[in-house]
């Protein structure tokens, strides 16, 4: 069974259990229909909220900021995802210490209005799926919680799909970063304002 099929089976089971309990109580038909519709409505709203989690970061936030420190809880899939603002465009980005450079999807690059034709030579990037050609660009500002970085190099390629990644060129400009249990802790530094050579 595929992951999607397993998810659908799980959600169907969650819906069937309260409905089965309702039917077992044998209330009058009109009351049964009302309560069944109420349960279906509650389930639909919950499912919609979970499926739109990426677009509702303020409600389902795994990211906390305190002073110059930003803490991100580990996602159930084992990764860390940061709520990032790039030049005013909000994205949920995978934090990947295995990525040398911050990588953006074509959709994010378009939303930012990046000029991908400024450099006529594509960069060759080593990914988990092999080497891919990517355009290079720079973004003026990247914000993660209280962390603010200026003039960050990025790569853009259709091969990245819809995934946006914060790479080592971001992490290396922090005062520190480490994983504490199931939490990624990133500490800001003034060096974020002035980039090193990338």
From TrEMBL:
The keyword Iron does not apply. The chain crosses the membrane at residues 6-24, 36-52. It comes from the Bacteria. It holds the Pfam family gag-asp_proteas. InterPro entries: Clan_AA_Asp_peptidase_C, Peptidase_aspartic_dom_sf, Retropepsin-like_bacterial. The keyword Metal-binding does not apply. CDD domains: retropepsin_like_bacteria. This is Aspartyl protease family protein. It comes from Sphingomonas abaci.
């Amino acid at each position: 069974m595929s992951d999607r099929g397993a998810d659908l089976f799980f959600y169907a089971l969650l819906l069937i259990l309260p409905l089965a309990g309702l039917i077992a109580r044998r209330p009058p038909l009109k009351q049964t229909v009302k309560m069944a519709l109420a349960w279906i409505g509650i389930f639909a709203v919950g499912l919609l909220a979970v499926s739109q989690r990426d677009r509702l970061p303020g409600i389902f936030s795994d990211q906390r900021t305190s002073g110059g420190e930003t803490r991100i809880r580990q996602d159930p899939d084992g990764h860390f995802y940061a709520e990032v603002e790039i030049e005013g465009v909000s994205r949920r980005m995978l934090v990947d210490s295995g990525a040398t450079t911050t990588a953006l999807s074509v959709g994010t690059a378009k939303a930012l209005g990046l000029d991908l034709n400024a450099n006529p030579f594509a960069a060759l990037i080593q990914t988990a799926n092999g080497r891919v050609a990517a355009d290079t660009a720079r973004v003026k500002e990247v914000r993660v919680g209280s962390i603010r970085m200026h003039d960050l190099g990025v790569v853009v390629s259709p091969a990245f799909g819809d995934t946006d990644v914060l790479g080592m060129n971001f992490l290396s400009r922090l005062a520190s970063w480490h994983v504490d249990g199931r939490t990624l802790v990133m500490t800001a530094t003034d060096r974020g304002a002035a980039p090193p050579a990338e």
